[in-house]
Amino acid sequence: MTFRFKLTGGAALYGAYAALAAAAFAAAFAAAAVASTAASTVFGGAAKQGAFDDLNRSRPLAALGSEKQCARYSGLPARWRDDPQAGMVHLHGGDFAFGSKLGYEDERPAGDGKTHVAGFWIDQTDVTNAQFAAFVKATGYVSDSERQGGAVVFHSPTREEMNARDLAWWSWVKGAAWNHPTGPGSTLDGRMNQPVTMVTQADALAYARWLGRDLPTEAEWEYAGKAGHEGADLDTAPRDEHGKPSANYWQGVFPVLNTDEDGHVGLAPVGCYAANDFRLYDMIGNAWEWTKDVYSGPHQSHTNGDTAAVAPLSRRHDTPMVIKGGSFLCSRDYCVRYRAASREQQEADLPAAHIGFRTVLRDAS
After folding, report:
1. Angle at CA 93, nearest 5°, toward 91 and 94?
2. For the chain, what are the domain ranges?
3. What is its EC number (predicted)?
4. DSSP letter, residue 6
5. Using an 8 Å Cβ cutoff, are 199 and 144 in contact?
6. How sure is the predictor about 295, in pLDDT bands with cuts at 50, 70 and 90?
């Protein structure tokens, strides 16, 4: 479902666009709600047992989940580099319903969706700038954004920019990189506890292998993201019991007005919002996360915005890979991918400001 528009009538047109888009998305998602709710009970018994197991007992798990806690977090988990599973939790294997009947076409489950994953450790948070900086310092690694001489950066466009070109909120910025997030001269000062972004899949894999780990498969990521739940509430905008956003995503009219209801206009430090039932933070929103799986399935027209469209024309197109979880740019009226089952494609070697990663360590078979 695609909405294209040009801004010609000021704020009133922004509001009309938002209302139209939101209504269309709501209708599309609600159409299958009853069926999805019924299907969610198929694996309910197994899900209620949970996968957060006794291997986590007495481990120094991150004390995060609020604005105060995330603000004072250094970005390095307890026993960093001393414990092979520092900053991770263990999930035992199990079955879950892979996909969603409420989302986009390429999220539809295959058959009944029943999928099995084996046990694994997974990072509690996205890999932070502090962690990636430690990797670079230890290894001398040079990231793809540095080699390519730039990365894709977001900004809220003016009316003139919106009228001039599609995807006006994306720009290829020369000199932008994981350690120069807005371009030359910018630094990571005050951002060491944020997710590292502008990293490619190869960058993420290099970091993971440095620690003897890997990137999650799409199924492993979604198993962790759903945290033992299968209900239709997984396909709604995440809000807590008080109605406040419980993740960092876009509130307002994308891409011109962010109301900051969730407390963060751009990237937030990791762990500012409550963890899911597997003690994992930011599985929804903040930054998309790389998986190790090639994107397949129907590539329908949608509204996330292809960052490759603004990359240099001389750049070759690489393999599209699955990214999961949505980001601070996902909105109710535009992207609607702040959901555990959501999936998107990103070219493996294209660094962008809204994509990070977390790692896994699989149990020995």
Report:
1. 120
2. 10-362
3. 1.14.99.50
4. -
5. yes
6. very high
Q: What's the rounded Cα separation, in Å, for the pair 24 and 26? A: 5
Q: b/e map of 83-115 (b: 16 or more CB within 10 Å)?
A: eebbbbbbbbebebbbbbbbbbebbbbeeebeb
Residues 307 and 170: beta-carbon distance below 8 Å: yes
Q: pLDDT tens, 162-203? A: 999 989 999 999 999 999 999 999 999 999 999 999 999 999
Contacts 24+ apart (CB under 8 A), 239-248: 240/274, 246/273, 246/274, 247/273, 247/282, 247/284, 247/285, 247/286, 247/338, 248/272, 248/273, 248/282, 248/285, 248/286, 248/328
Q: How long, in residues, is the chain? A: 365
d(C-alpha 339, C-alpha 274), whole Å: 15
CATH class of the domain comprising 10-362: alpha beta
CA distance 161 to 300: 26
